[in-house]
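FYI - complex with FE2/S2 (inorganic) cluster, inputs then prediction.
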Amino acid sequence: MPVVKYIQVDGQAFEVEVPIGSSVMQGAVDNLIEGIAAECGGACSCATCEVYVDEAWMPLVGEACDIERGMLSASRDLRRNSRLSCQIEITPELEGLIVAIPAG
Ligand code: FES
C-alpha cells in the first residue's frame, strides 16, 4: 500500500498507508488526521478536504478539473498546488506522496 505523508499546519507529519483505489481524503479520515473535514464524503461538493500537494508531486498528481477548480474557488488560501483530496485517487505511483493541510 502506498504511504502518504500528511503535514499539519504546525509542521507535524503523519505517514499512513492508503489503499490503492482509495483517496487522499479517505486516507486522512480513516487515520483520524485532523484538518480534513470531508463534509460531503468525497462528492466534490464541499471543499473541506483541500490540501496543498507538494510541488514535486504536482506533475504526477495533476491539476484540478473545472468542477474541482470551481469548488476550490471558495478556498480562503487558494494556491497553485491546491487540490481537493477526495479527488486524488491513490495509485501505486503515488507512493511517498506529500500533502500539506491548510489552516482551518
Ligand atoms: Fe467534499 Fe472533498 S470531501 S469536496
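The chain is about 15% helix and 20% strand. The first strand starts at residue 3 and ends at 7.
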